[in-house]
């Protein structure tokens, strides 16, 4: 009887009409800024940086969506700061209800303001704390971690190591100053002391020449000479001007962390825990290269859209946005726990990897740091600390 009943049920399912197809449109917009190449040729950005991650996210959304009659389309755009606004309008005219943005702070804020209520903007690149604070926007969700999250992740590990005397070197660019301020705040928050600060002025010129290592070998020891006694050197170098030159070149034999050495990241191509190996393999088979942070953040932004569509069974952008910003929303990110969105600044909660060039050393939040709501809220600006006020 059970077999007959099962066959009858199967027949009913097979005879049932397929669900009506729902198309969910998004766009990924990368804004490239002209500048010097990175210090190491290993860090040269691939042409599909970020875009490849969004493609994998779209494929993953389609896998689940096929059972629900949902199809996903993610248009790809690359712009400059001068063409970004026009490119956004092109994406919106194409029907995109969600815009994944890979850009700096200024461009991300401008695009969010230009989009207004026409689309939900998912920030997959900009890390500035101002975007989560006084410059926050209700239509902006931050998939990329803030400087405060990255600094707190590192500070927790250094507190566990009892390396609580820091020598801070910051660059001369605005993003460097923002990251340096995050390190200052983290030091105070987790009981460390910044014993000295120095600024490395960017004077321009070539940074990658045949004789570069000779110059660095002479310059960096002198630049770091005479610092107050410290446990570790912290580099705040978002512009990528000097930090990679610091390891093994400091006057004192001290470890380096921050923008070089031990680096806090959202993703690392050597991560294997929590099912990441299979995820890494799928990306590498598609893109023919390892996954970078920008790829992971774009993938996760696209997956946020897909997860909302799956949970709601809807393709209406307004309905999806409502769910994404609700307390019920969560998404998996191959980091060992569910990722959720803070309602006070729209920052995605997520663990931060502490990495070297070859592997993941640790993952924050560290076990010793607890929170009454979510341990992930020990990273970054908590509700009582936020300067964000949505209209």
Account of the protein in words:
- The chain folds into 2 domains: 20-145 and 268-350, Rossmann fold (3-Layer(aba) Sandwich); 148-263, Response regulator (Rossmann fold).
- Helix content is 34%, strand content 17%.
- It has 10 helices and 12 strands.
- The strands form 3 sheets. It has a 5-stranded parallel beta sheet with strand order 2-1-3-4-5, with helices on both faces. A 4-stranded parallel beta sheet has the order 7-6-8-9, with helices on one face. A 3-stranded antiparallel beta sheet has the order 10-11-12, with helices on one face.
- The protein is globular.
- The termini are far apart.
- Pfam families: Peripla_BP_6.
- This is ABC transporter substrate-binding protein.
- Belongs to the leucine-binding protein family.
- Residues 1-20 form the signal peptide.
Question: Main traits of this protein?
Answer:
391 residues, alpha/beta, Rossmann fold, 2 domains, four-stranded parallel beta sheet, 17% strand, globular
Structural class based on helices, strands and sheet pairing: alpha/beta
Helix content: 25-40%
Total number of helical segments? 10
Name of the CATH first level of the largest domain: Alpha Beta
What CATH architecture of the largest domain do you see? 3-Layer(aba) Sandwich
The general outline is globular
Tell me the strand percentage band.
Answer: 15-25%
Strand order of the largest sheet: 2-1-3-4-5
CATH topology of the largest domain: Rossmann fold
Q: Superfamily at the CATH H level of the largest domain? A: Response regulator
Taking the alpha carbons of the first and last residues, their distance comes to 61 Å
Which sheet architecture does the biggest sheet show? Answer: 5 strands, parallel
